[in-house]
Amino acid sequence: MMRSSQPLTGTNGRRCKEDEKLINATLRPGKRGYIIDTRSLNVAQQARAKGGGFEQEAHYPQWRRIHKCIERFNILQESLIKLVEACNDQSHNMDRWLSKLEASNWLTHIKEILTAACLAAQCIDREGASVLVHGTEGTDSTLQVTSLAQIILDPRCRTIRGFESLVVREWLQAGHPFQQRCAQSAYSNSKQKWEAPVFLLFLDCVWQILRQFPCSFEFNEQFLIMLFEHAYASQFGTFLGNNEHERSKLKLPQKTMSLWSWVNRSEELSKFQNPLFEANSLVIWPSVAPQSLQLWEGVFLRWNRPSRFLDEAHEEMINIIKYN
Predict the structure, then answer these.
(1) pLDDT reported for residue 308
(2) Could you tell me if 186 and 200 are in contact, meaning their C-beta atoms sit under 8 angstroms apart?
(3) What's the mean pLDDT when you consider all of the chain?
(4) What's the rounded mean pLDDT across residues 160-179?
(5) Tell me, what's the pLDDT at 323?
(6) Per DSSP, what are the bridge partners of residue 37?
(7) pLDDT tens for each residue of 201-222
(8) Contact predicate 71/96, CB 8 Å
(9) How many C-beta neighbours within 10 Å does residue 254 have?
(10) φ, ψ of residue 65 in degrees (nearest 5)
(11) Which of 26-30, 57-61, 92-96, 188-192 has the lowest mean pLDDT?
């Protein structure tokens, strides 16, 4: 599985024979490859006017391109603002709360991301195919899909150390702009231009899988909540800056403490270990059915919503999704 930004084909359909040769070199003998574009076909076509675009099938004959739309960061930010507003609604009117929750489309975004990740995992597991995942810049939705696909396929990514390595490899080293995306509190109503809950959505998707496979993960929910909190905080230098170059230029490794060095101490590590964990070497396939996805109470409702109200609301939400 590979990840990249979009090819710069432009309106003239430019070719890059070196790219074609490189991509084809990853194919196994007798196997085909899949290019999963995390944009809709319409958005990908519009990108050509700005110099971007997508792979032409004539130039990549052994590859099949599939578009699995995951909304861009500005849409996700609007969704989070609406979700936070719904969770802060103190009217205790279930119909009103459910209406706001549905309008936020938060669970819909989770479904889209998990569906794309499952598709990538299926291509690899069931067909032995090579997979290339990209969006526009390759630093947002692309990372969500590749990270979740690895969690589905690789049991090592479900361990604490393995998950830490996954975050470093697929998010920090791949250049997810944490400084821009997590500039303010996730619960803030006023957002800056480049803010977006891309990493939070990824953690939410992991939590959804953890709920469905409670014995397959070495870490617990608190581990995910801790990562969410520190992605927005500045207590450690791990999530500061927008990429490795900025972190190196700011000398963060020398000036700050790593989050991992704190988490991996025995006295802290015990807080994040799942007592139900049993090593599972199998591939795990999460469900994206309405009844399988829930609002992450530990993040969004930990201060202001009773669990009984949430249980009733979840049942109503399932019915809304089923019949609308």
Answers:
(1) 45
(2) yes
(3) 92
(4) 97
(5) 47
(6) 67, 134
(7) 999 999 999 999 999 999 999 9
(8) no
(9) 8
(10) -95, 130
(11) 188-192
User: What string of H, E and C letters represents the secondary structure of the chain?
Assistant: CEEECCCCCCCCCCCCHHHHHHHHCCCCCCCCEEEEECCCHHHHHHHHCCCCCCCCCCCCCCEEEEECCCCCHHHHHHHHHHHHHHHCCCCCCHHHHHHHHHHHCHHHHHHHHHHHHHHHHHHHHHHCCEEEEECCCCCCHHHHHHHHHHHHHCHHHHCHHHHHHHHHHHHHCCCCCHHHHCCCCCCCCCCCCCCCCHHHHHHHHHHHHHHHCCCCCCECHHHHHHHHHHHHCCCCCCCCCCCHHHHHHCCHHHHCCCHHHHHCCHHHHHHHECCCCCCCCCCCCCCCCHHHCCCCHHHHCCCCCCHHHHHHHHHHHHHHHHHC
Is the pLDDT at 315 greater than 70? The verdict is no
**138 in Cβ contact with 243 (< 8 Å):** no
Type of residue at 2 = M
Q: What sign does the dihedral 85-88-90-93 (CA atoms) show? A: positive
Which of 18-27, 54-63, 88-97, 154-163 is the most confident on average? 154-163
Domain boundaries, the chain: 2-323
| Lowest-confidence pick of 98-102, 257-261, 316-320 | 316-320
Q: What is the mean pLDDT of residues 8-24?
A: 93
How far lies 309's CA from each of 54, 83, 91, 230, 300, in Å?
46, 16, 12, 29, 14
pLDDT of residue 95: 87
10 Å CB burial of residue 173 (0-12, 13-18, 19+) is exposed
